[in-house]
Specification:
The structure holds 2 protein chains of 2 kinds. By secondary structure, chain A is mostly helical. Chain A has 6 helices and no strands. Chain B has a 4-stranded mixed beta sheet, with helices on both faces. A two-stranded antiparallel sheet of chain B has the order 5-6. A two-stranded antiparallel sheet of chain B has the order 7-8. Classes of the chains: A mainly alpha, B alpha+beta.
């Protein structure tokens, strides 16, 4: 009689651990999937940059430093491994691009170029998408990390070596500051 | 977020089961009333109910989206036709984690509104009116799209279709019953009800037959209202900007009060819009309204206090309604920490900002001069002078030919008359 009770308890315990384990796996896969979404958008940005630089070069003969900064930042960003590393490189690239956008203001002919304009629109939209992908990724990471830290999933997470994921934090560059308009 | 979808699916399945059993009980009750002596016949009505339900279900599963979209006269657009709208839809898909980008449709009407359809995210579509694109700024449009994407992501579109079909079957069965009572029921009843127990059963059956369709509708509407709140909460979370949705809802409801518009005529679609065009004016949530009153929705969004998380929405909702009933399942609430809202994106800073201000001033002047505004899918806003006489106009950017809606011109002409001094 007693061994039946013991058996039932053991089976229930095993089932419970399995369900917790599966929950952790589900959340980890969501984090990975969210990261791949960011990756897609970052790649897109990297692909847009050479076109943008090529189009702009003809008009901006005296801005070699700006172009070099962008090209270098892009190369660094493309070589980055993992969220923490990528976040650093990407925020540098974002800084270089916003400096480039400031310089563009001095070249009216360039701003009249339709090819350049559509490239710039694509780039802006990609920046937005990166922002939203980052936001979604960070939400998923937070949920996953919460699970790893909280009882009872932390026990299962420790048993099977689930480790916390990195957030993708970009230092907010000055371009995000919105000028206040008052009448 | 994914936990939210799981709970939603579970709840939906539960509700469909309840509605389905309501259908069966109704069928059985009707059979009992019409032929108390032949038990086999009472199953006939259960069968009729189920057949009606299955047929309706299969139709909506096979191509319900297409039927709805074409009945709204929506046309599909690609990225080249409406780049900004398309980008916004893509952005919100990313923010919500929706894996496939829904198709984008545009409805040519000055009424600002939007809806989403699709039993599966892979087959989903978002439709917005040209009026919406003309009257809202980018942040507001984004918020509306976020609300619609939330409906797709939370599987509300699937659930509301299934529930709607089941409720429809209950109502049709009730109709059949009342008609047969009028025409042939009287004769049969003379034979039935020969004992005390039979009479009691009969009364219960009659009450059931009357109550079931009403009950089904009430359940459906209550769920629909709750789903609207949930989609609002998700939209705030996706955009990190509750004010965007609040001011969009404000603008849409103001427009709807001025003229009910043609989109309200389609009664099947009306409950699917972000604001029900038939009830945009109502201030209180009736038992039979599909949407919560817009004022309440705006109030909740505006009292979230700089926090765009689902938990903050829940708190704002409870403080406004003074009740403890929840919009969100606990699993979803627990999963979100405080998330700060962002600033408005629209005034892009620098020169773009001043250019936009200039444009706004110009728009205002045009409005004073009674110009009519016609939005093109490409993002161009065509301004028509009050003395414009043609019935058609070509978009100067994409050369799409627009037929000018008569009411738009009528407003313009009237305006010209009063503005002539």
């Amino acid at each position: 009689m007693e061994w039946i009770i013991v058996l039932v308890v053991v089976v229930a315990l095993v089932l419970w651990v399995i369900s917790l384990y599966n929950k952790l796996v589900r959340f980890r896969n969501q984090v990975r999937n969210a990261w791949s979404q960011i990756d897609v958008q970052l790649k897109r940005r990297h692909d847009l940059i050479p076109n943008l630089v090529e189009t702009a070069k003809g008009y901006m003969k005296h801005e070699r430093e700006t172009f070099e900064a962008i090209t270098q930042a892009r190369a660094a960003a493309m070589g980055a491994q993992g969220p923490a590393d990528a976040a650093k490189a990407e925020s540098q690239l974002q800084g270089a691009l916003s400096r480039f956008n400031l310089v563009v203001e001095n070249y009216p002919e360039l701003k009249a170029n339709t090819n350049f304009l559509s490239l710039q629109e694509e780039l802006t939209s990609t920046e937005n998408k990166i922002g939203f992908a980052r936001q979604f990724y960070n939400d998923q990471v937070m949920q996953f990390n919460n699970l790893i830290e909280s009882v009872p999933t932390n026990i299962v997470a420790g048993m099977f070596q689930f480790t916390k994921s990195d957030f993708f934090e970009i230092e907010e560059p000055a371009e995000r500051e919105v000028p206040k308009v008052s009448f | 977020m994914f936990e939210l979808i799981r709970t939603n699916k579970r709840k939906s399945a539960g509700l469909i089961v309840v509605l389905g059993s309501l259908l069966i009980v109704l069928g059985y009750a009707i059979g009992l009333i019409l032929s108390p002596d032949e038990p086999t016949l009472s199953y006939l009505f259960v069968l009729i109910g189920v057949v009606v339900w299955v047929v309706m279900l299969l139709t909506s599963l096979a191509g319900g989206e297409k039927i709805l979209l074409s009945s709204a006269r929506a046309r599909e657009v690609k990225k080249a036709d409406a780049p900004q709208l398309y980008n916004i839809v893509e952005e919100m898909c990313i923010a919500s984690g929706l894996s496939t980008i829904p198709k984008v449709y545009i409805i040519d009407t000055p009424d600002p509104n939007a809806f989403a359809v699709g039993l599966k995210p892979e087959r989903a579509a978002v439709a917005v009116t040209t009026g919406l694109m003309a009257k809202l700024n980018r942040d507001e449009l984004q918020a509306v799209v976020a609300h619609e994407i939330a409906h797709i992501q939370n599987r509300d579109t699937l659930f509301m279709t299934l529930a709607g079909v089941t409720v429809g079957a209950v109502i049709i069965l009730g109709d059949i019953f009342f008609r047969s009572m009028l025409f042939g029921g009287g004769r049969r009843r003379g034979g039935g009800g020969n004992n005390q127990g039979g009479a009691a059963l009969m009364i219960i059956a009659v009450v059931m037959a009357i109550l079931a369709p009403i009950l089904a509708r009430l359940l459906y509407f209550a769920c629909s209202r709750q789903r609207e709140y949930l989609a609002d909460a998700c939209a705030a979370q996706y955009t990190r900007y509750p004010e965007g949705l609040a001011s969009a809802l404000d603008k849409i409801s103001r427009q709807a009060t001025k003229h009910s518009g043609e989109i309200g005529k389609n009664k099947t679609l009306a409950p699917m819009y972000i604001i029900n065009p038939l009830a945009a004016r109502s201030r209180r949530a009736g038992w039979f309204s599909t949407h919560p009153p817009t004022e309440q929705r705006i109030k909740v969004l505006r009292s979230m206090g700089g926090d765009a998380s689902l938990a903050a929405y829940e708190k704002a909702y409870q403080s406004i309604h003074g009740r403890k009933d929840a919009v969100l399942p606990p699993s979803a609430r627990a999963a979100t920490a405080a998330t700060p809202t962002r600033e408005a994106m629209e005034n892009g800073g620098g020169k773009a900002g001043t250019r936009k201000q200039w444009r706004e001033v110009q728009d205002l002047l045009h409005k004073v001069d009674h110009y009519a505004v016609l939005a093109c899918a490409c993002g161009m806003k065509i301004k028509l002078p009050p003395d414009y006489e043609e019935s058609e106009v070509n978009c100067p950017r994409c050369h799409h030919q627009h037929v000018i809606p008569p009411e738009l011109l009528a407003v313009g002409v009237l305006g010209a008359a009063s503005g002539a001094k």
